[in-house]
Amino acid sequence: MTGFLQGLRGEALTTAAQHRIGLRLKLDSGVCSIPLHRVHHLAGFATLTGEPDDYFLGWLRFHGERAPVFDLNRVVCDAPTAESFGSRIILLEAAAGAATRYIGLLAAGVTDTAADLPELELDDYLPMLYTLIPEPPAEDA
Predict the structure, then answer these.
(1) How far is Cα 48 from Cα 92, in angstroms, rounded to an integer?
(2) What phi, psi does 37 have (nearest 5°)?
(3) Which of 10, 15, 58, 70 could form a disulfide with 50 if both were Cys (CB 3.0 to 4.6 A apart)?
(4) Coil, strand or helix: which one is 57?
(5) What is the C-alpha separation between 10 and 22, in angstroms, rounded?
(6) Which BP terms in the Gene Ontology apply to this protein (predicted)?
(7) Where are the domains of the chain?
(8) Going by DSSP bridges, is the β-strand pair 22-27/30-35 parallel, antiparallel, or unpaired?
(9) pTM passes above 0.85
(10) DSSP at 74
(11) What pLDDT shows up at residue 141?
(12) What distances in angstroms separate CA 89 from CA 5, 13, 29, 96, 104, one per listed residue?
């Protein structure tokens, strides 16, 4: 990642500058970002297992583990994420003690990074989502 974060003059960006760079996404309330240091992996719009319920969309199989996926636009703006070319599942590492290792957030307009966008305050939403993680469906045979 160091090569990616090189400044225009070839100087490495400071840690503080790295934390300002975010993954751009679009919510009904506007364009914002999630700090790159919070993003573990990006996944395409995928087939999910389990029964969707309110904010919960289903389970994503990621490197042999199941990750619950929630609709970020529904959580923040109370409207479902529109399916579009830039819709992606953003995987974050879950907090210590969470029921799963990763948590997925479906978002639209995930197309690039930016340093000049307001950051979505994930910590305002993640604690609630941890309480909404359902029991995973039975393991596939």
Answers:
(1) 17
(2) -65, -15
(3) 58
(4) strand
(5) 20
(6) chemotaxis; signal transduction
(7) 38-109+118-131
(8) antiparallel
(9) no
(10) H
(11) 42
(12) 23, 27, 19, 21, 6
